[in-house]
Specification:
globular; TIM Barrel; binds pyridoxal-5'-phosphate; alpha/beta; nine-stranded mixed beta sheet
């Protein structure tokens, strides 16, 4: 369910026409529905209501402070993968004891920040990381709660870039080695083993990979508990898929139903790390057509949003529905929707049937709430887009469009040191070593 609907021929976010936001804020602009965010969170929460559980929103999917604070107010915790994400979670007043920290490259500095903040636990991705956590916790005189991220070696059927549960993935600890690593962890003086973690991939559109992996994880938990390890948390990760083209995907209750037997039997608190399912269809990217263009047989719509704003089509070949924000009866045409960036890979859609759109018209790129603004960059020295949150009949700019000064923040113009000698020492030699 989402709150982007046509009313009187105009696409609205909740009760606000997109046209109004575009006129006031400009384009490209990301638009989020607060009602949708909360609805998705509540449905997920309800689905798992029979089990003790904690929903840790995956900050990397969309880390805007207004998104985080909306979810924190619903009771969500956070799944973080960097010190920067911890900073954001704490900034909105997220309870630190609802924060779990994954990622294969946590630095000692980040580990210290997390320990000082008293997060719930680390999801540990390698044995060597365990030793670093133990050392840092020892220096601070605290105990670090940990789960091991195990890799159950199941194929989640997602795009290879977002499948993480296969043996050859860089994530987690091989399920075969998990027992022995748990044994080593139990011997560390500054580490407290409290859980098992898995995250098998993203945009998974079937319950089966979860059923399979949770059966494996459930067996591991039983063996650990039999050995006297007090496993209190099973973290099933994230990855619940969403419809990008109105396809059928499981509902939260389908996941809950499939997994409840094993999870219930474990007696553990269940942690879910959900990003895309909460925020993906709670956002769109609004963009205006700049030019119509033909090269040979091909037709292009050049729009003012580009791969620096939304890289998913370029990076993963992802499909985003594109619709005109104001309905009009026009003939359909097949076009590539492309941005101004100087890369052939800069496209939002390829060979797409769209009703003919003229320069100045507003288009909505749908399902752009997750991994969209969060992955944006300043490539081509483009200012990052504004973000807007709609709540009922009103909206708030929750991130200003960047200005040119933002683009050069922290940079320096090179200034020659005074004196000829200094200059000759510091100048790079560009006269020798030619390769022509
Ligand atoms: C990205 C990520 C998630 C969230 O995945 P979604 O597909 O957005 O639900 C959860 N856990 C970990 C460890 C992740 O890296």
């Amino acid at each position: 369910m989402h709150e982007f609907k046509f009313l009187d021929g105009e696409l609205h976010c909740e009760d606000v026409p997109l046209r109004r936001i575009a006129e006031e804020v400009g384009t490209p602009v990301y638009i989020y529905s607060r009602r949708t965010l909360r609805d998705h969170y509540r449905k997920l929460d309800e689905a798992f209501s029979g089990l003790p559980h904690l929903i840790c929103y995956s900050v990397k999917a969309n880390s805007n402070l207004a998104v985080l604070s909306t979810l924190a107010a619903e009771g969500a915790g956070a799944d973080i993968v960097s010190g920067g994400e911890l900073f954001r979670a704490l900034r909105v007043g997220m309870a630190a004891d609802k924060v779990v920290y994954a990622g294969i490259g946590k630095t000692a500095e980040e580990i210290e920040y997390a320990l000082r903040s008293r997060i719930l636990m680390f999801n540990v991705e390698s044995e060597t990381e365990l030793y670093v956590i133990d050392r840092v916790a020892g220096e601070l005189g605290v105990k670090a709660r940990i789960a091991l991220r195990v890799n159950p070696d199941v194929d989640a059927g997602a795009h290879p870039y977002i499948a993480t549960g296969l043996r050859e993935a860089k994530f987690g600890i091989d399920i075969e080695e998990a027992l022995s690593v748990y044994g080593h962890a139990a011997l560390l003086p500054n580490v407290e083993v409290v859980g098992v973690h898995q995250h098998i991939g993203s945009q998974i559109t079937s319950v089966e990979p979860f059923r399979e992996s949770i059966a494996i994880v459930g067996e591991l938990v039983k063996r650990l508990q039999a050995n006297g390890t007090a496993i209190r948390f099973i973290n099933i990760g994230g990855g619940f898929g969403i419809p990008y083209r109105q396809e059928e995907v499981p509902y939260p209750r389908d996941y809950a139903q499939a997994l409840k037997p094993v999870l219930g039997e474990s007696g553990c608190t269940v942690i879910l790390e959900i990003g895309r399912m909460i925020v993906g269809n709670a956002g769109i990217l609004a963009t205006r057509v700049l030019y119509r263009k033909h090269t040979g047989e091909k037709g292009f719509l050049v729009v003012d949003a580009a791969m620096n704003d939304l890289i998913r089509p370029s990076l993963y070949g992802s499909y985003h529905e594109i619709v005109p924000a104001v309905k009009a009866e026009r003939e359909e045409e097949i076009v590539d929707v492309v941005g101004p960036v100087c890369e052939s890979g800069d496209f939002l859609a390829r060979d797409r049937a769209l009703s003919r759109a003229e320069p100045g018209e507003l288009l909505a790129v749908m399902s752009a709430g997750a991994y969209s603004f969060a992955m944006s960059s300043n490539y081509n020295s483009r200012r990052r887009a504004a973000e807007v949150m709609v709540d009922g009949g009103s909206f708030v700019v929750v991130r200003e469009r960047e200005d040119y000064e933002d683009l050069v923040r922290g940079e320096r113009v090179w200034v020659e040191p005074a004196g000829e000698d200094a200059a000759s020492v510091l100048q790079p030699d560009i006269t020798g070593g030619g390769t022509a």
